[in-house]
## 1
Amino acid sequence: MIHFIGAGPGAADLITVRGARLLGEADVIIYAGSLVNPALLDYKQEGCAVYDSASMTLEEVLAVMEETEARGGVTVRLHTGDPSLYGAIREQMDALDARGILYDVTPGVSAFSGAAAALRAEYTLPEVSQSVIITRMAGRTPVPQGEGLRKLAAHGCTLVLFLSAGLLEQAEAELLAGGYAPDTPAAIVYKATWPEERVFRCTVSTLARTAREHHISKTALITVGRFLGETYERSKLYDPTFTHACRKGTS
Ligand code: SAH
C-alpha cells in the first residue's frame, strides 16, 4: 500500500491527524526534502527507511515503491502542502495504476492557507473579492497560453502565486499590464508556518524591489489583491438584520 500524504506548509504539527498516524505506520518514507520540514520525520517508527526525493527521478521513486510493495511493506510518499497543487502526484498515481499497486491520498494544509494565516487575512471578502486564483509564473515548466498571468490579472481578484519568488520583475510587469493598479496591496510570505517565517507587505509595483531587498528568491508565496486593504463589507451571514436557514433576522 502507498499513502500519498500532504505534509502541510512547514510546521510539523500542521500535518493532519491521519497523515501523522500513517507516517508512524510506514516502513518506507519518500519525502520531498527540498520543501518538507525534516521535523515531520519524527513521526516515523523505528527501523523506517527514509528517502529524500529531491535527488531522485520518477523512475527511482517508483522503484522504491515497487520494492517495498513486493515485500508487503507500507510506503508513505510525503509531499509538501497539499499534494494536489504542483505536487507531481498524477504521474505517480498513473504509474501505480499501471502496475496494479493500491494507493490513497491524504490531503494537507496548502502553503496558500499557511500564508493567509501568517498574514491574518481572509482571501474572500464581501465586495472585495469572492475568487482566488492560484497560479505561477512560467518557468522551466511552461504555463498554458490561456493562463498567462496578464490574462488572469484582468479579473482583479485575489491572486496567489506559487513557484515565482525568483521571477518577480516579470510577475510585476504582467500584473500591472493585466490591470492591477500599481498601489494594489501585495505581500510576500516566506516560509509560512516555519520558525523562520517572514511577511513582507508591499504593493504590486514594489514586489520585485521588496523581494530583492530582503533576499527572497524561493520558498515564498506572493499574494495580491485588495483583500489586503482596509475596506470591505461585513458578512450577511452574521448580520443581525439578515434572515437565513438557521437564524431569523431583526428586519
Ligand atoms: N503542494 C504545495 C506546493 C508545492 S510547489 C502546497 O500545496 O503548498 C512549491 C512552492 O510552494 C514553493 O516554490 C513556494 O512558492 C510554495 N511554498 C511551499 N511551502 C511554502 C511555505 N511554507 N511558505 C511559502 N511558500 C511556500
Note: The pocket of S-adenosyl-L-homocysteine is lined by residues 9-10, 35, 79-82, 85-87, 110-111, 114-115, 162-163, 189, 191-194, 218-221 (CB under 6 Å).
## 2
Amino acid sequence: MCGIIGYNGFRDADIVILNGLKKLEYRGYDSAGIAIIDKKQQVYKEIGEIKNLEEKLPKIKGTIGIGHTRWATTGGVTKNNAHPHLSTSGKIAIVHNGIIENYVKLRENLEKKGFKFVSQTDSEIIANLIEDNYKGNLKDAVFSAIKKLEGYYAIVVTCEDEPDKIIGARLQSPLVIGVGDNENFLASDIPAFLKYTNRVIYLNEAEICVLTKKDVKVYNKDEKVVDKKENVIDWNIQDAEKSGFPHFMLKEIYDQPDTVNQVLRGRISEIHRNINFNENVENLLNSNISSIQIVACGTSYYAGLIGKYIIEKFTDTPVFVEFASEYRYFGLKHESSLVIAITQSGETLDTLAALREAKNSGCKTLVITNVVGSTATRISDAYILMQSGPEIGVAATKTFTSQIIVLLLIALKLGMIKNKISAVQLYEYIRYLREIPRTVRDVLNKNNEILDIAKQLKNAESVFFIGRGVNYPLSLEGALKLKEISYIHAEGFAAGELKHGPFALLTKSTPVVVIATKDATYDKILANIGEVKARGSQVIAIAEIDDTEIEKHADFVLRVPGGSGVLPSIPIIVVLQLLAYHVADLRKCSIDKPRNLAKSVTVE
Ligand code: F6R
C-alpha cells in the first residue's frame, strides 16, 4: 500500500502535495517524493517520513505536480526506489500504488529498446512504457501502456510537453478525483484533498481520467467518455482518514478482502498449478529441512500455532512453535531446522533476538513480515512480505489473516516439494484461496448480527473461548483480541482441557464462545458444549452455514462459510475480531490505542 496524489490548479503545488501526503502517511512512510512541473520536471525524494522530505525541499514554483508516500513492496527502501519515477528522457513523471506482476519482462523489452532504469521497482517501467508509447498525446500513451500491465495499479502521470494536465488510471487500487473551482485533485484517499474540496468523483475499475485546471474527463477501458456523478462528502478530516470508519481497527477489519488479495497476488498460479515465492525463499524451502521452528510473540505467535497445524498436515514435517522470548534463551537450535520468525512490524525486540540466536547457531532463517526494510528482513536469510499496508490499530487484525495465508502458502509449497500433495489437490486449495475474500465479505455482512451477540458479552467479567485442532489457536486469538481492547478478562482453551482445571472458574455468568467446525472432532466439541451448559453457562457457537445440529446445543449461533480442515479459519477470525471490536466499542474503550500497549514492542 502507498499513498499517491496529483494536483492541477492555481495554488503552489508543493504545498498542496505535501499537505496531501501527510494525510496519506497512514498508507506508507518509508520514503516520499514529489515532482512538480516548472517548465521541466522538478523531482525531490527522501527516505523516511514525509517530514524528512519537507525539511529538505526547496521552494518549487509550479501549480501542477504529483507526490507519493511509499510502503515498499518491490525494491528496498532507497532514494532511487522512492517515487515519483521519471521516464528515460526525464519528461514523464509517474507515481504508482500497486504491483506490476510482469515488470521483469516489460523491463527487459524496454531495456532492449534503449530505455534506462535507475531503480529496482516494478513502478519505474510504467514511466518508460508510457514514453515508449508517446506520440504527442499523453492520454493515448497511458491507454496503450496500461494495456500491457499485468497486476494492479493506481497511477498519476504528468508530462513536461503537456503541462496543462494530469492523468490518473486505476485497476484494483484506489484513486479518487477531487473537484474544485479552477483546480482539480487526484489521490488514493479523500483526506489528501479534503482541506480544499469535498466534491469527489469515484473512478471505477480500469477507468482513466484527464484533469486540467478547469475540467475533469473520465474514460472507460474502451476509451469512451463516461458521465460521472459528483458526490459531496460530509466527513470531517479525522473521519476521512479512517475512510469514514469510527476506528482504524474497524477499517482494518474491513480492509481484509483486499489484503487477502494482496498477500496472494503474484504467489499463486492456477495455470501452472504452483505457489511462487522469491528466489531466496524458494531456495530455503527446497533445502533439506528436518523440522521447522516458529518463533513469534502475541498474535503473531498464535498465527504460528495455526501454522503448525497447517504445515504438519500438508508436509508431515514436525513444527515446533515457541514464544520468541522463551526460544532466545531456552529453545533448542538445530542447524538442520528452518526457523520461521513471524512479526508484523519486523521490529519486535524478542523476535529479533530469537532470530539472531537462530542465525548464530547456524539455523536457516525465514521471516514473515509486513514491513520491508525492517530489522527482521535484514537479519534473516529470506523474507516474505504480507503486502497488507500499514496497520495503525494497536490490535493486529488484517496482518493476522495475512500471516495465516502466508503460512498456508508455505505449507502448500513444501507439500509439493515433498510430494505430499498432488497438483490436483493444490488446484483445489488455490480455488479455495481465491474464494477467501468473498467469504470474508460474507462475514462482514453479518456485522449487525455480531453486534447483537456483543451486547450479550459486554457486561461479562470473564469470557472463555474454546476450540479443538486449529480452532484452539483461533480461540486463543479471540480471547486476546477481547481482553486487549475491551479489558474483559478472557481466556482461550483447547476444549478438551476444560475439565482439567479451568472448569473451576466457570460460573453461570461466564459466557463461552465455542468454535465448532465440522471436522473429525465435531462430536467431541458438541459434548464439550454439553459440559459447559450443564454448569449453566451461556454458549455462543461459531459454526458453519450447513451445520443443522448446532442450534440444538448452543444459545446463540454465528454462521461462517464452511469447508474442510483449516479452510473456515479466516472467516472465523473475522467474526472474532468484530465481536471483540463491538464489545470494546459498547464499553467505550480506547480501541485503537488500548491502555498499556504499543504497536511495536521494542523493549524486552
Ligand atoms: C495483539 C498484537 C500483539 C502483536 C505482538 C507481536 O493484537 O498486535 O500481540 O502481535 O506484539 O508484534 P509483531 O507481530 O509486530 O512482532
Note: The chain has a mean pLDDT of 93.
